[in-house]
């Protein structure tokens, strides 16, 4: 049989040959031979390398580590037992001291000492002895005029020199700890204490003596089955020598004995473990060796699986290489190390074709390309041309395409009409561009989530396929609010992601918010993606996808941070958006009574548009809060990164006023903290931040711009008038409407004021909501640039940080180009209605001077 290989014919001899041919074949050297089995040798070597450390480790554990741990645990246990014995003896001495003090202060003892009558003292001693049934004798020895004890009857009160020494030391006011001794074959212990009144003729020394069996009883009450307890008395003259006062139990492990001193005495308790006690701490090696056996079986099975499966996979891969070389088609290999071989075989095939006859222009170009420059070093680049509709999408034609929707690539996200501007082809190109950008930043895996819009499943599916085709792995976290995607980049082992969402826009819109290396990419990054989409050059590869659910982890982390002191009644309006399920669940987990409003996920948004910055969309929330007597209400936009708040009386809290509440709270704990806010916020916010001891930092509108500025300044709080709130204190610094609502609930539950009362303490003014002035998408930035260049605001201070903001002594006005819609946005604030109208009129005049055709809505 013959096989076409590399453009030439190679003859393969049949397996069965006649005798005549077999001899000549044997003499002829074969072109391909195998000597030994490298794979088997490598596997056996790997098996040896794996098994030897495991066995050495188990031997170390069994012979060194476990015995050492056992001895350490046994020593600690012995020390604990000794301390228990010492504590029991100390408690006995304390009880005796307390009773001595009570007996000595009795009227009977005082009367006997005052009379200085020996008979009265004897009677008192006998009476006191009835109060100490455990004592064998009690002596009451008065002090003489010189302050020493007076001994009558030839010092009969003292049995021996030990008791005499105790009496003398106590009479001199010295510390005299209890002392044990032998008297006539009986173990006794004496305690001497000073007693009596304030005058010299009422002072005496009480000497109480008891049998050491009392100490023996204390030791018998311990766990004597575990070992031996010895009460030892340290000899003052020789601290390293001791005498045994009492002992109980049996112990035979002297090397593991432990000693603990009895406080306020010269005694100590020594515990010597028994062998039965030590056996409790000895671990059976059976478990350890069973684990060793399982590990060895698993290791051997793993290497055996490699030995069986890899040759089959290798045969399959080489077959794919030869077929691809023969038919000159592309091939994807599961063993990257075979790619250089495949390239060289492909090159040899083309050279064989060149020798055999004329090649096509395509084959000639492929043969001369740099791809085959040095196959030993693999691919020469990480990019290949993405083929769409059978044509190369080079930069020149696409960049000049008048139908290319450049307007969907906005300041800090991508957004357009889902069906017309974000069709599958455009989504695939955007996915390829994002994947290529991630590849350049060494981000292998991207998290992907989507909101509940009807177009989101299609767009997410297409996006994931594009990311995988460009070599990226994907973690699909399902339908979630945007803050959970941001949270996932912190919680999972992945720092980048894409959120499919139209945010607060109407249902027919959709788009992408992109995070690379935990940074929301803004204007420059979005423009980079646009340019890559135009050029059509993307990385190539084969990724994989897994699914994760981060909802429970998110709720757990918020609960671990936010503590609500008392239950609040809260109305949650999810607007049928992505927070419909998790929003109410979060506040119920925090201990609040939750009233759900429009919390059924519906991407058509049947109840009201998902834009919380439009106060008309909050009418249902206002009515529900008033009718139910709720403490306050919250509304989230379509993807949950914006927050709107309504007080218990139904007052809509604009976001710059809400920022005053948060600023007071955060800056009070962090004096000197930076607080970032956008140019649409009230001037009273900056005044309040300064008054609280913080530093106000006005900045450009846009969640990506705000996060960049917070990271740059280290700000602990940020906020936009549109409802994006960013907490750098106790949170991750991304915009999260649900977390911000939780922080508000914490503040109200901790304080003594309602939200209405808290707002009443802030400075007030006449101000407008955000006003939209519709203009063509392509014209909005030109209009603002012309206004900044030609506008004449003689009475105010002009700032061009973001649009044109003019601050007057009595208020301010702002006009800027919207980053998210085809419109100009305006807002005005003044101390009075007349001054507000004056500011608005000046802006009308200047805008109409720039473009007389503008249709102003203020």
From TrEMBL:
Domain of life: Bacteria
Domain Alpha-D-phosphohexomutase alpha/beta/alpha per the UniProt entry, residue ranges: 408-535, 553-650, 655-761
GO biological process entries: carbohydrate metabolic process
Pathway the protein contributes to: Nucleotide-sugar biosynthesis; GDP-alpha-D-mannose biosynthesis; alpha-D-mannose 1-phosphate from D-fructose 6-phosphate: step 2/2
Keyword Magnesium set for record: yes
Reaction(s) this enzyme catalyzes, per UniProt: alpha-D-mannose 1-phosphate = D-mannose 6-phosphate
Pfam families: PGM_PMM_I (PF02878), PGM_PMM_II (PF02879), PGM_PMM_III (PF02880), PGM_PMM_IV (PF00408)
Family: Belongs to the phosphohexose mutase family.
Cofactor: Mg(2+)
EC number: 5.4.2.8
An example Gene Ontology molecular-function term: magnesium ion binding
Protein name: phosphomannomutase
UniProt entry keywords in alphabetical sequence: Isomerase, Magnesium, Membrane, Metal-binding, Phosphoprotein, Transmembrane, Transmembrane helix
Domain named Alpha-D-phosphohexomutase C-terminal: residues: 770-845
Entry's transmembrane regions: 42-63, 288-310
Alphabetical list of Gene3D superfamilies matching this protein: Alpha-D-Glucose-1,6-Bisphosphate, subunit A, domain 3, Alpha-D-phosphohexomutase, C-terminal domain
